[in-house]
Amino acid sequence: MSQTSLWEYANPRKFLQTTDRVLPWVAALAGVTLVVGLVWGFFFTPDDYRQGATVKIVYLHVPAALMAINAWLMMLVASLIWIIRRHHVSALAARAAAPVGMIMTVIALLTGAIWGQPIWGTWWVWDPRLTSFLILFLFYLGYMALWEAIENDDTAADLTAILCLVGSVFALLSRYAVNFWSQGLHQGASLSVQPGERMAMIYKLPLYVSMTGFALLFIALVLVRTRTEIRARRMRALLARERMGGA
Amino acid sequence: MPDLGKYTETVLSSYAISLILLAGIILVSLRRARRVKKELQDVEKKVKSNG
Amino acid sequence: MIALLIRDMRLAMRAGGGFGLGLSFFLIVVVLVPFGVGPQAAILSTIAPGILWIGALLACLLSLDRIFALDWEDGSLDLLATSPLPLEGIVAVKSLAHWLTTGLPLVLLAPILGVLLNLPEAGFLWLTLSLALGTPALSVIGTFGAALTVGLKRGGLLLSLLVLPLYVPTLIFGAEMARRGAEGLDTTTPLFLLAGVTCGTIALLPFASAAVLKVNLR
Known about the structure:
The complex is a heterotrimer of chains A (247), B (51) and C (218). Chain B is built from 1 helix and no strands. Chain B is an all-alpha fold and 51 residues long. Chain C is built from 9 helices and no strands. Classes of the chains: A mainly alpha (247), B mainly alpha (51), C mainly alpha (218). The interface between A and B is large, with 39 and 34 residues.
């Protein structure tokens, strides 16, 4: 019954050792897929009949938006694992993922706004999906700010984990509230960037590659940042011990 | 460079801002990783020599 | 627990307890709005329900850190936590005290301020009703935020950053209910959605707030 389970990697030292071997491969794969996806999409796809060349923005906007949400989901799972099983690596991974998720959210927001500009004529509309991402951005900020504000590592981990849980419920609730709220808009249709929209294979394939690239990039960055957090935590522990009079 | 027509600015600025932000988070993460790794090594050395 | 409720309310009402501040802030915000957007009656009456909601929300926000701050500083929070009363109950009582001393007065002041903003006649009832339904949620959500930041000096800004996104659903449904009422439209949907959010938060958040306090009191 002693097969390696995922929990073994929860040990910080083991995590560092394992990621030492795995990270270069993940990073390399991420780089390759990302470049292939974006180059393919940018250079080798035709213009859309309705949206012209702006359809090329989809290779950035959709993967970023998906990762913005997936990053938060990962943080939610990591927070739950911390609360239930108290694996420090889990709490640190959640902390590590937040800035990456936040950047993904910003990319989704900016590309969404830029994409909409020729269609709407303005740089911003309170389209329900863009608005939801704006709220998600605020949740990321709050989560990161709380980590920064609390000195004690374990207290910070606990509080941010509970915040992530409560925040997730409210984020979901806000999604529905914003949809309800935007029904009152008299302006035209919302951003017609539905990823589920009937998309020809010729666009879908490079999009899937790009999405994979973004996902791998997220994983690589979270691994890098978690390793940093583990080391920073160890350093703080060592310094604290020193201050209290030596080992 | 494909002909982007009237959407040149739109598409190029999207790509530019996205790539800048991605490069940014990558560089920041890598730089901090290197710095913390070095600081930890320094602290561990110091602790070893004190203990 | 009734004793705790009365004590908290008394603390809030005495001089320096912040009771009048919330109301004054609400008034000031409402007075500032015409200076910002112009005095035209038509514009004001369109935005009145929303502005009144936002003003009430911000006034609520201001008084949130008082929920736990005083007890934290003099150690009574520790005593409360070790008392036989469940911490969830204590938290709920504190939220109630906050609502009675902050939310409810705002609800009562709102129609008066509505006159300043040319709130349409039909709107007065619905605005008051929507605030009455929604401000308890603001208190309960605010209590959660206050618990998270209880130990921090100058945690006020962080408290706002954490709490305001959580206020969005209540604000959306409440303001929509007030707006529809003012325009004479049917308010059933936002009313039930608002009531749902309020009931849900009252039922669930005290548990989260209590868990947070336990962490902070370790």
